[in-house]
Write a structure and sequence with these properties.
Blueprint (H helix, E strand, L loop, with lengths): L2 H27 L9 E3 L3 H13 L32 H9 L25 H12 L1 E3 L1 H16 L10
Antiparallel strand pairs: 1-2
The structure holds heme C.
């Protein structure tokens, strides 16, 4: 082996070992391959129970995935509810659920029957409970970061933080 080749081989070996170490480090913090869900709630058991009951009774899952599970019988392209509390606050949710025309707040390009319905007719206490619960639906920072980067790369073809892709 020539000297130059040795340097190159050594460099490659270092990269491989480095990669293994970095991956091991990452794995100790999170492991999407192991199926760990990056979503969690900070709600008290009472709020969680009340929120989940409303979501069930009002059939939000007909359109939205929640805890990454989507109704397989439905094909509404609504955003998942998981982690939304990391992006929006309780007041926003309350205003949105109380709006007679939710599309005035969040415009929709979907067919009318797929759009977010108004829940303005619901009792105020239920809208408040729902908003409070939604605000506790968080997403782990690493996942939010990864998603942001992925979207950014998709849109621009560039890496957000200057690192080369996976
Ligand atoms: C008929 C389908 C449908 C039902 C039922 C429905 N939604 Fe939606 N929802 C949507 C769609 C679609 C959007 C995206 C905005 C749009 O297209 O109107 C949306 C948007 C939202 C948003 C804003 C998401 C964001 O990215 O900011 C929240 C929060 C939300 N829905 C919560 C709920 C809750 C809670 C329920 C049950 C009480 C519910 N939705 C029931 C279809 C639905």
């Amino acid at each position: 082996m020539k000297k130059g080749e040795k340097v190159i081989f050594g460099g490659v070996a270092l990269l491989v070992v480095g990669g293994v170490i970095v991956n091991a480090f990452k794995a100790s913090h999170f492991d999407p391959e192991q199926g760990r869900i990056p979503f969690y709630t900070t709600a008290s058991p009472e709020l969680r129970a009340a929120g989940e009951k409303l979501i069930k009774d009002l059939e939000c899952r007909k359109c939205h995935a929640m805890w990454t599970i989507r109704d397989p019988m439905q094909a509404v392209p609504a955003p998942p509810l998981d982690g939304l509390g990391s992006l929006k606050d309780e007041t926003w949710f309350y205003t949105y659920f109380s709006a007679p025309d939710p599309q005035a707040i969040l415009p929709s390009r979907l067919k009318a029957e797929y759009r977010m319905p108004s829940f303005a007719h619901m009792p105020e206490t239920e809208r408040r409970t729902l908003a409070a619960y939604m605000a506790t639906l968080k997403v782990e920072d690493w996942y939010l970061e990864e998603t942001r980067n992925r979207e950014f790369e998709k849109l621009t073809g560039k890496s957000l933080n200057g690192e080369s892709g996976e």
